[in-house]
Amino acid sequence: MEMIDPFIDFLHMLMGTPLFYPLVTLLIVADALAPIVPSETVLNLAGAFAASQGVPSVKAVIAAAIIGAIIGDNLCFALGARLIGFVERLDPESKAGQAILWVRRNMHRGAGPTIIVGRFLPWARWVATIVLGSVRYNWFAFLFYDTIGVIIWAILSVGIGYAGGALFSDIPLLGMVVGVLLGSLVGFGIQKLQGKFFDWRDERRGQSTL
Description:
mainly alpha, 10 helices, 82% helix, 0% strand, transmembrane, cell membrane, transmembrane helix
């Protein structure tokens, strides 16, 4: 516990400062452009810490996340034509390569749901914004669906972390770990549900044409 307490104190100092919120925004913009470290983890941690320690402000973190995600996604969309060549050269066996296959398969089923669900999948959202930007997908439609996805994503990411922190408010570190794990499971679950929904819809359409 003696080693953990200074870490908790550091997080309390960091998340208690007003500068934490613009830092969250900048991190999420960077994550949208290069999804190396999923920004969901930061939001899960912030939510869990808010539940157990009282800081940061949940509403402010959600607002900062929404602003950062919308800016980052739209930057990727605008740079789509320039980045698509790089995306197409990625190893098909890598996470990014698999995300390309997922995005292209689901784009044929519906761009709107793919944009929304892709927001929960780090590499998929990056690929989707670039692909859509490269084919000059309607920007207003992209902004509409992306904003819906971003709002849901931000609320769930912070909220799930908050739930984990509340469950283990007496053990902040455990609460943060649980919050992050729950957040990861949600993204996986949403992807599976979307796949099952599209499969069901495709079957229904196939039956209706018989």
